[in-house]
């Protein structure tokens, strides 16, 4: 079966209050959109379409020819954004995943499980949901007395009772591709925001007697979105924890993981000890048995095995024209503290 994906990334990100376009804000060294596309790529997709509008050039420069692009000139809503990919996708067989470009914690495994669930339910549409403590800002999942999904109600359109529902839409969906594109033109914009809402496709399918399903995430944080910088900081903390745990499991010691900052692109050898306040950034590769910090700032460097990177030091390989020289500098400076 063909699997397609559409990533929505045309919005301005007004709530970020930034000149940098929302999906280009970095999380642990990579722009948000890169994390989302990175979760999709292992799924061997037939088509991977990114819908761009605001900041289109920056996104295209970031992702290059790894994806296809659809242009949304005016941001009329998420349903309208998906519709912009019709020239590539309409009329094709298969299943289409739709994701927002601002949910960077989503993982391939979760998307695979969503696809499996969607197929096992033989649904026309399946939404990935989370049970959260604070549902503010998210679409609420409205189920009927049998527990079946009726519709999704946006925060701004919700009644007081609906606002209390703590099962939310992550904005991640799985659709029968043909049924999705047959239904999108019927979505209206008669709502509080005057936008064409993608979540309304679920209610429309359901009214036509189609099966609509909801799959609850095991990890509610995976579906979290970034609308402002408070959420950005929160998600960065969660991602940092994920990265640090991966390194610790593969043999790296961290004196205080909460105060150790490692980009998702960095590699570290076994038995290396990272002291608090250490930043390992960019393309940095740390060898085995090194000691780094406290308070070391290491960017785009190759650090050989058994090197001591001194406390309160800063190395930036990207400022050296020759990478070899950068290696020497780290080792030489380390000598003051004795190489192991
Ligand atoms: C959206 C969902 C909400 C869900 C939440 C999950 C709608 C109407 N609401 O709300 O149900 O709980 O995500 O995080 O879908 N975008 C476009 N073109 C547009 C509008 C938006 O490309 O015309 C893109 C944005 O760049 C963004 C994504 O779609 O990446 C979601 O838009 P956003 O405004 O962040 O929606 P939310 O209010 O978070
Ligand atoms: Ca959002």
From TrEMBL:
<dbReference type="GO" id="GO:0071555">
    <property type="term" value="P:cell wall organization"/>
</dbReference>
<keyword id="KW-0677">Repeat</keyword>
<dbReference type="GO" id="GO:0003977">
    <property type="term" value="F:UDP-N-acetylglucosamine diphosphorylase activity"/>
</dbReference>
<dbReference type="InterPro" id="IPR005882">
    <property type="entry name" value="Bifunctional_GlmU"/>
</dbReference>
<keyword id="KW-0133">Cell shape</keyword>
<dbReference type="GO" id="GO:0000902">
    <property type="term" value="P:cell morphogenesis"/>
</dbReference>
<protein>
    <submittedName>
        <fullName>UDP-N-acetylglucosamine diphosphorylase/glucosamine-1-phosphate N-acetyltransferase</fullName>
        <ecNumber>2.3.1.157</ecNumber>
        <ecNumber>2.7.7.23</ecNumber>
    </submittedName>
</protein>
<comment type="pathway">
    <text>Nucleotide-sugar biosynthesis; UDP-N-acetyl-alpha-D-glucosamine biosynthesis; N-acetyl-alpha-D-glucosamine 1-phosphate from alpha-D-glucosamine 6-phosphate (route II): step 2/2.</text>
</comment>
<dbReference type="GO" id="GO:0006048">
    <property type="term" value="P:UDP-N-acetylglucosamine biosynthetic process"/>
</dbReference>
<dbReference type="GO" id="GO:0009252">
    <property type="term" value="P:peptidoglycan biosynthetic process"/>
</dbReference>
<comment type="pathway">
    <text>Nucleotide-sugar biosynthesis; UDP-N-acetyl-alpha-D-glucosamine biosynthesis; UDP-N-acetyl-alpha-D-glucosamine from N-acetyl-alpha-D-glucosamine 1-phosphate: step 1/1.</text>
</comment>
<dbReference type="InterPro" id="IPR005835">
    <property type="entry name" value="NTP_transferase_dom"/>
</dbReference>
<dbReference type="GO" id="GO:0000287">
    <property type="term" value="F:magnesium ion binding"/>
</dbReference>
<keyword id="KW-0012">Acyltransferase</keyword>
<keyword id="KW-0808">Transferase</keyword>
<keyword id="KW-0963">Cytoplasm</keyword>
<keyword id="KW-0573">Peptidoglycan synthesis</keyword>
<dbReference type="GO" id="GO:0008360">
    <property type="term" value="P:regulation of cell shape"/>
</dbReference>
<dbReference type="GO" id="GO:0019134">
    <property type="term" value="F:glucosamine-1-phosphate N-acetyltransferase activity"/>
</dbReference>
<dbReference type="GO" id="GO:0005737">
    <property type="term" value="C:cytoplasm"/>
</dbReference>
<feature type="region of interest" description="Disordered">
    <location>
        <begin position="313"/>
        <end position="340"/>
    </location>
</feature>
<keyword id="KW-0548">Nucleotidyltransferase</keyword>
<feature type="domain" description="Nucleotidyl transferase">
    <location>
        <begin position="5"/>
        <end position="218"/>
    </location>
</feature>
<keyword id="KW-0460">Magnesium</keyword>
<keyword id="KW-0511">Multifunctional enzyme</keyword>
<keyword id="KW-0479">Metal-binding</keyword>
<dbReference type="InterPro" id="IPR011004">
    <property type="entry name" value="Trimer_LpxA-like_sf"/>
</dbReference>
<comment type="function">
    <text>Catalyzes the last two sequential reactions in the de novo biosynthetic pathway for UDP-N-acetylglucosamine (UDP-GlcNAc). The C-terminal domain catalyzes the transfer of acetyl group from acetyl coenzyme A to glucosamine-1-phosphate (GlcN-1-P) to produce N-acetylglucosamine-1-phosphate (GlcNAc-1-P), which is converted into UDP-GlcNAc by the transfer of uridine 5-monophosphate (from uridine 5-triphosphate), a reaction catalyzed by the N-terminal domain.</text>
</comment>
<dbReference type="Pfam" id="PF00483">
    <property type="entry name" value="NTP_transferase"/>
</dbReference>
<dbReference type="InterPro" id="IPR050065">
    <property type="entry name" value="GlmU-like"/>
</dbReference>
<keyword id="KW-0961">Cell wall biogenesis/degradation</keyword>
<dbReference type="InterPro" id="IPR029044">
    <property type="entry name" value="Nucleotide-diphossugar_trans"/>
</dbReference>
């Amino acid at each position: 079966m063909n699997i397609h994906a559409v990533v929505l990334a045309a919005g301005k990100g007004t709530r970020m209050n930034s000149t940098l376009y929302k999906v280009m804000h970095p999380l642990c060294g990579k722009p948000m959109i890169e994390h989302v596309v990175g979760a999709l790529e292992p799924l061997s997709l037939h088509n991977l379409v990114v819908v761009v509008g605001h900041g289109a050039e920056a996104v295209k420069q970031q992702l290059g020819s790894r994806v296809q692009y659809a242009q949304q000139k005016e941001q009329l809503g998420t349903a309208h954004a998906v519709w912009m990919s019709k020239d590539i996708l309409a009329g094709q067989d298969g299943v289409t995943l739709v994701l927002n470009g601002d949910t960077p914690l989503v993982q391939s495994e979760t998307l695979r499980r969503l696809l499996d669930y969607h197929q096992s339910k033989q649904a026309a549409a399946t939404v990935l949901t989370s049970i959260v403590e604070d549902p503010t800002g998210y679409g609420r999942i409205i189920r009927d007395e049998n527990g079946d999904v009726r519709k999704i109600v946006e925060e701004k359109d919700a009644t007081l009772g609906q606002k209390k529902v703590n099962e939310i839409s992550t904005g991640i969906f799985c659709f029968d591709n043909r049924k999705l594109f047959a239904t999108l033109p019927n979505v209206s914009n008669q709502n509080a925001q005057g936008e064409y809402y993608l979540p309304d496709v679920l209610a429309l399918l359901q009214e036509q007697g189609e099966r609509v399903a909801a799959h609850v995430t095991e990890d509610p944080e995976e579906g979290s979105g970034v609308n402002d910088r408070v959420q950005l900081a929160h998600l960065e903390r969660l991602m940092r924890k994920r990265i640090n745990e991966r390194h610790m499991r593969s043999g790296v010691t961290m004196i205080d993981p909460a105060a150790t900052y490692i980009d998702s692109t960095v590699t570290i050898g076994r038995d290396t000890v990272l002291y608090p306040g250490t930043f390992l950034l960019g393309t940095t590769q740390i060898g085995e048995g090194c000691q780094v910090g406290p308070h070391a700032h290491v960017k785009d460097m190759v650090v050989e095995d058994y090197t001591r990177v001194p406390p309160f030091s800063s190395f930036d390989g990207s400022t050296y024209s020759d990478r070899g020289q950068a290696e020497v500098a780290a080792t030489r400076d380390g000598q003051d503290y004795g190489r192991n």
